[in-house]
Amino acid sequence: MSRDEQSNSKEVQKNSREDQQSNDSGGLELSQIVFIGRTFEEYMKMFNLMVDEINGKSILDCPGGACSFSSQARKLGADPVAVDIAYEHEIDELEVKGFQDIEHTMKQMEPVQGIYVWDQFGSIQGLKEERTRAITDCIADMRMFPDRYVASVLPDLPFADEQFDLTLSAHFLFTYADRLDVDFHVATIMELLRVTKQEVRIFPTVDLSGERYKHMDELKLILEERGCTVSEEPTSYEFQRNAHTMLQIVKHNRTR
């Protein structure tokens, strides 16, 4: 990956939540991060998970953002680790920034409510309450288990081969297809597979316009040639219109 591609990857990883703000290139400034996350319940729907599937499992959430999956999964017997470019900042700073981002994002969403499906949240106020719950749980867990929140920049991860049973990746790959090329997608998924024993699940399979990732068939062929079973699975979660499918990648042979 070229230096320009690495810089572009860092820039996108700073802004991988509902609020896609434009910003200048440069170092990882806290002001450039959008620190918003989703709840445990959203994750369970996005990834077609049941509680008994995560009990006793080591799980990687990548990128984890301000999501509460790790917090709640830990209480249910899982051993989760979250990784995100944002975690290089102090927890107190992320907490302040996260609540600011929720307020800003809700205001931005008011004129574009029609591009979302509100069955889950009911209204912008309902969405705000869930995003607030997510970051509250996340920050509390970060304070209790700081070593389980790891700062890193994709496509490189500081973990051992097959360290995790399951890896979950939400609203990053495919979502930002206009800014992250197919080589980055392949490199990142291969890295996720490297650190995973059993399977990787990626949600959603569409870009920000709601269109299926244009290189999906090519990507699936690459993964199948490396011994994986790959399928696009419908889920019960839809907030962004047409974003209701996940990519499930099951390992059978080593993919390195």
TrEMBL record:
Matches recorded under Gene3D superfamilies: Vaccinia Virus protein VP39
Keyword field: Methyltransferase, Transferase
Presence of keyword Repeat: no
One biological process term in Gene Ontology: methylation
Region annotated Disordered, chain positions: 1-26
Biased composition (Basic and acidic residues): 1-20
SUPFAM superfamilies: S-adenosyl-L-methionine-dependent methyltransferases (SSF53335)
Signal peptide: none
Molecular function as annotated in GO: methyltransferase activity
Keyword hit for Aminoacyl-tRNA synthetase: no
Name of this protein: SAM-dependent methyltransferase
Protein species of origin: Paenibacillus amylolyticus
Lineage of the species this protein comes from: Bacteria, Bacillati, Bacillota, Bacilli, Bacillales
